[in-house]
Protein 1
Amino acid sequence: STQSTWGVLRKMLLRQHFSFRGPQIVRFCGGGLGAYYPDFLDLKAAGLLFDTLLDQTEWKQEYTVVSAAGPAPVPLPRLTAWYGLGLSAESKYTNPIAAQEWSAPLLFVKQMVEEITNAKYNSVLLNCYVDGRHSVAPHSDNERCLGEKPVIASLSLGAQRNFVISPASTAVIGKLPPSPNERRTSFKISLQPGSLFVMSGDLQKYW
């Protein structure tokens, strides 16, 4: 049952709480910061959380925003589910999305992430990539509902996927003063199942 599955998952998450290694830090030109936790969840817990969310989530097929006189809406190459604390998603790419009520597993993982990142999160967008053809286009998470200098935490479940962070404008990055140990070019990382990648500072402004 749903309740018994959540009970098993909760015990697994509690047992490994804070048992992972410290983050790998990546600094980006312009004051952006990335922190990668490769084993935030172990494979067994990550697998059970993946199966639970896949089965219990009310997935939606969203479409690109078009004008009345424009072409027919195009389905986004992924399924999504939006959860927020009294929020409605303000996306540049789709029509406004009504937030769903948080589930127990999502709230528990949210609290785990908040504890290690020392940040509060008001929403989560679940993306389901059904196969290798599904993806998300380059974008910045800079919607107004996320606030100024948002902290974005991305938890990966299921198959390993590449994650790429590129300058929003190479011309703008080129004008910023250089700093030691800061990236000025694209960064690519293979996100493992159960890993957590946290973005903060001005990363969403310049990247």
Protein 2
Amino acid sequence: FALLNPILEIQLKSIEAIQECFYLLSKNEYLLSESEFDCIFPYLVHKLQANDITIQNEIKKMILNSSNNVTKSYDIFGFLSRSLESLSGLGKSNCIELCHKLLLNHGIDTIIPIQQVHHIGRLVLDSSLRDSSITFLKEVKNRITVERFSLLTKGLPADCRSIIETELSNIVIQEQKKDEKIENEKEQQQQQ
């Protein structure tokens, strides 16, 4: 498979070929079967940990563009979250970013909430992945009830839940301070 070739130009050409295939499939309203998906997406996700930023960005763009065009976003989301355990830190970070973008683009119905919250929720213990994990979890929390979010995080280890609660509380406090600052600036402008 040319995508695994160590020569950058060959990898870029294989990405172009896959993008063209996805475009033609989408144009013909064809969705990948489960076996077709399983033949392509493991290679794409593996390349999320490539050393070359161009490769990473092209793969991320391709995965996002393929959601609901040649495969269901639900399938991509599930595959990304299941892949987290086998990837390097860079690959995990890119997977979390893609999960967040899929959530933003396709909504909460895109995910299997308990699985994604648990896969990504455990990553808050890794300081290099904490910010991206918290950003994802904040978006999940914003889209569901507090009670449902509590149920989703209930199965996480206590140390993970503690970090998540603390980080999300800090974000709320920061947002409130920012809003107060903006409000104060508006009042000062009105007084002038």
